[in-house]
Amino acid sequence: MQQSLNDYYHRYTNGLIERSEFEGLVYQYLAKNQALYNFSHWQPEEYEDFISWFYFRLHRAIDAYRDIGASFDAYFKKVIRLTSKEYRVRVTTKKITEYAAWSVKVPELYAYDETPAYLCENAGKKACINAGETPEETITRVAVTANRQRKNPKQLLALLLKCYYYVSDDFLERIAPKIGIDMEQLKEMIEKLKEIRSKRDEGIYNMKERIHCQFYRCIIYEKRLLLATDETTAAVILREKLRKARKRLEAMKKRMTKIRTDATNKQIADVIGISKGTVDSTLHSLKNRWDILTDKSLLN
User: Fold this and answer.
1) In this predicted model, what pLDDT tens digit does every residue of 147-157 receive, in sequence order?
2) Per residue in 246-258, pLDDT tens?
3) What is the pTM of this model?
């Protein structure tokens, strides 16, 4: 006949078994008697995971018991019931987090490579970012026009370096012949510019990562709120957390739009080995000729 938890406890308190053996017997008893603790609706695998998770709390649960009327077995049933609720909350939260991470794609609206102001047109018939034109497409369009009109290719080099944050190695390989510069030399310029702006670029990257995390945090709060009972304390707390999380996300998005990702004209001049004034006039000439919008940042 199988002994009860009360029997094990009395043997332990009478010094017949050591503490480690007692904890092992309690764990084995819980593992073999799923139905006795009203967990028959759980899958065996789920119950095993719960008991394994609970084992690390078993030591403190035994120490917390006081023989003031309720038996050790009755006390443990209550402990198991309460901790099982906490376990289910943890498991549900984990599943919600996985759902947010794997099933929800971050829209470009929340964290995307911001198109710099000087590459778009607020008004006019020759807007350079029509229909979502990318910086690479803008540079290509300018390059084709420049070759056709036999313009100075150094203008394209200045524009390319200005947009270094957005160009890929594949694009550099395609644009190098149009600029009339060796591919490796062009890469060296880009790398030098990245090295100069490494701290700034790292800050931009970290900001985007925080925006992604905040977006997922909002998704998790929304999913947990759907599973919470209306007007309970937990639902009220979650609703307030969601409100604050959304507000912070909007503030972070707004801040991201104000962060400049373009190189300064002084940095471009240092990389090319010319004066800042030459870069200023070059980009200003491009702006006037190809309707590339500029602001004060273009001349910085």
Assistant:
1) 554 456 777 78
2) 999 999 988 888 8
3) 0.50
